[in-house]
Amino acid sequence: MYKERFELWSEHPYFDNDTHLELKNISDPKEIEDRFYTDLEFGTGGLRGLIGAGTNRMNKYVIRKVTLGLAEYIIDDSPEGQERGVVIAYDCRRFSREFALEAALVLTKKQIKVYLFDDLRPVPELSFAVRTLHALAGIVITASHNPKEYNGYKLYWEDGGQIPPKQADSILACIQEHKSWVDIELMAKEEALSAGLLKMIGAEMDRQYLAKVQSLALHPQLIKEYGDLLRIVYSPLHGAGNILVRQALAELGFSHVYVVKEQERPDCEFSTVSCPNPEDSCVFNLAEQYGLKQQADLLIATDPDSDRLGVAVRAPNGSYQLLTGNQIGVLLTYYILSQKKILGILPEKAIIIKTIATTDLADEVASSLGAEVENVLTGFKFIAEKMKELEESKRGVFQFGFEESYGYLAGDFVRDKDAVIAAVLLAEAALFYKYTDGLNLTQVLAQIYSRFGYYLEDQESVILKGKTGKEEMAKIMTVLRQTELKELGGISIEKVDDYEQGTGLFVNNNISYPLYLPRSNVLRYSFQGGGFVMARPSGTEPKIKFYFSVKGTNEEALKDTLKRVKADVMKIVSIVLAEDSIG
């Protein structure tokens, strides 16, 4: 089948000359097979893949086909959906602007109203716009923090959160029902504008969004009076956060915010970094130079679509310490809950939401301050779903949500991780502790560790590309399920949760119990005394991820413990891959 698809894309006049030429220059049969053996996978997160020609790549023809499926789902499922419309945003990546317009013109051809942002915008503002405009859906063209060779298509629904699995399956059915690649029509942009089907949005939505972000400040007067005490270096990493992050901070009163000029402007090549991911310490190299020059207290960086935030803190000796996503989340959990409690505005049923891949230290911190924690599957869409559930059931009041992969959210007006909000709250927390106690954020974190125990976390990703890679990931998970592990790195395992089977098992007495989260291909091993190991194939990238968390009282000893735990897990993976290569 893939050969027939290759010939169609290579020869049919529906596909443009650039596509024909790109495919003509491919001589490797395996490359051809990989591009055409399947359609780029559509899941609850939408699409993400390498940019290029082919059914298993990101290109305008894949965008058209997926958007046509969305359009037909809207028409069939929601009578008012055509009028309510779809909001579309995009980031700085290759073809993001073009892909956004392609999607818009497929929708308008089907008489569905589209609100298209006039320039690149952060993902969370798209979520906010969907809610504010009472639109039925939203699309963002982005591949988040992935390398420059990738782009993606994230789909949101009327609550501003990413589409849930049931709707994703229904939209996928509509996509698959349309077999042809060569008959999808677009409306001309000028026609869509004149017909009122395409409306450009921008500055007014920015103002509304920023007002909501700034309203989350717990001590706005402190920032107004003493914001000049904190010095911040900020890098948007060539992405969409540049204007709004700086504007939010400046309008609140942070007067010493210095942007990394080399990384200020949009750049689809991300020419100053190998990968625009604020989880990687190397993206802070330029920011650190600025920080040393300005004696900055904080270095902050947002990824290209500005939904993730990374932070480095200046130590007393002048060097900078990069915080992990777990550490940032714990600090914000502690700051928000403790300050709301002092101010008398912490609700009786305060709720923190985090993922099962995220540190259990947050559970301990929240409990000590009178809040409950809801744990959900990995992916911020599950945090958004739980927010909606809490809102509708009125059994708790959402305060803060986060995941270990540098995603954070406060407030009720966005339903995805939000680096603009995180930048404001983290800057406020840093100013508050500096002004009141003379402490930096790492010193506050040390106080948290001394009270609750030291947690050390890490992550390993094994990249397994293509069709073979998917098969290898499946085999790794099968072998892990078939292996009766009682300890890792010398630490006894208390229980094993298998989210695909929907059951957990206490290792010592072999007693099972039900799990109530949705089924997902995830294994989580919880250690006696705290900490865990989790295995999870990524749903959007060609990799299987392993999450590690160990707990103790001594940081240096924990480093050795973590090393042993990781070695035991990766030994199992290596054996599986070695056997597979021999076979």
What does this structure look like?
By secondary structure, this protein is of the alpha/beta class. The protein has 4 domains: 164 residues, Alpha-D-Glucose-1,6-Bisphosphate, subunit A, domain 3 (Alpha-D-Glucose-1,6-Bisphosphate, Chain A, domain 3), CATH 3.40.120; 103 residues, 3-Layer(aba) Sandwich (Alpha-D-Glucose-1,6-Bisphosphate, Chain A, domain 3); 127 residues, Alpha-D-Glucose-1,6-Bisphosphate, subunit A, domain 3 (Alpha-D-Glucose-1,6-Bisphosphate, Chain A, domain 3, 3-Layer(aba) Sandwich), CATH 3.40.120; 129 residues, Alpha-D-phosphohexomutase, C-terminal domain (TATA-Binding Protein), CATH 3.30.310.50. Helices cover 43% and strands 21% of the residues. The protein contains 20 helices and 23 strands. α12 links the parallel β7 and β8. The radius of gyration is 24 Å and the shape is globular.
Strand and helix layout:
Blueprint: H1 2-11, H2 17-24, H3 29-36, E1 47-50, H4 60-77, H5 81-84, E2 86-90, H6 96-109, E3 114-117, H7 123-132, E4 137-141, E5 150-157, H8 165-177, H9 189-194, E6 198-201, H10 203-214, H11 220-226, E7 231-235, H12 242-252, E8 256-259, H13 285-294, E9 298-302, E10 309-314, E11 320-322, H14 325-343, E12 350-355, H15 361-368, E13 372-376, H16 380-393, E14 397-403, E15 407-409, H17 419-437, H18 441-452, E16 454-463, H19 466-482, E17 487-488, E18 491-498, E19 503-506, E20 511-514, E21 523-527, E22 531-537, E23 543-552, H20 555-582
Parallel strand pairs: 2-3, 2-4, 3-6, 7-8, 7-9, 12-13, 12-14
Antiparallel strand pairs: 1-5, 4-5, 9-10, 10-11, 14-15, 16-23, 17-18, 18-19, 18-21, 19-20, 21-22, 22-23
